[in-house]
Amino acid sequence: VGDKPIWEQIGSSFIQHCYQLFDKDRTQLGAIYIDVSCLTWEGQQFHGKAATVEKLSSLPFQKIQYSLMAQDHQPTPHSCIISMVVDSIMGFHHMFLLKNTNDAWVCTNDAFRLALHNFG
């Protein structure tokens, strides 16, 4: 089987770093977003680094016990990486679009949705 493809290594490392920042100090999440980043959190849209960090910092819970059951990563045609996380314990899906900007991987698009809703 060999080593994982580079996009899987980058995606997995990014997700680990993101969730560590989320639990440790959400104000530091600005390091992984850029001014044109977009966040969709439970259907609410936030545009830009400042609005994204403000939303994530204002969430009422401080820490989450993660159980990242599945991660999928794919390369995109424009040298980006799309990453999706499924957490079965907390019941969420989280998608990131990652782009290499100035030799650093940043999140340009972030979409989060709890999977516990009854859509019926």
TrEMBL record:
Keywords: Cytoplasm, mRNA transport, Nuclear pore complex, Nucleus, Protein transport, Translocation, Transport. It holds the Pfam family NTF2. PROSITE patterns: NTF2_DOMAIN. SUPFAM superfamilies: NTF2-like. The keyword Ubl conjugation does not apply. It comes from the Eukaryota. Its main location: cytoplasm. InterPro entries: NTF2, NTF2-like_dom_sf, NTF2_dom, Nuclear_transport_factor_2_euk. It is found in: Cytoplasm; Nucleus; Nucleus inner membrane; Nucleus outer membrane. Residues 10-114 form the NTF2 domain. One of its GO terms (biological process) is protein import into nucleus. GO terms for cellular component: cytoplasm; nuclear inner membrane; nuclear outer membrane; nuclear pore. Homodimer. Interacts with RAN (GDP-bound form); the interaction is direct and regulates RAN nuclear import. Interacts with the nucleoporins NUP54, NUP58 and NUP62 (via FG repeats); recruits NUTF2 to the nuclear pore complex a step required for NUTF2-mediated GDP-bound RAN nuclear import. Interacts with CAPG; mediates its nuclear import. Mediates the import of GDP-bound RAN from the cytoplasm into the nucleus which is essential for the function of RAN in cargo receptor-mediated nucleocytoplasmic transport. Thereby, plays indirectly a more general role in cargo receptor-mediated nucleocytoplasmic transport. Interacts with GDP-bound RAN in the cytosol, recruits it to the nuclear pore complex via its interaction with nucleoporins and promotes its nuclear import. This is Nuclear transport factor 2. It comes from Colobus angolensis palliatus (Peters' Angolan colobus).
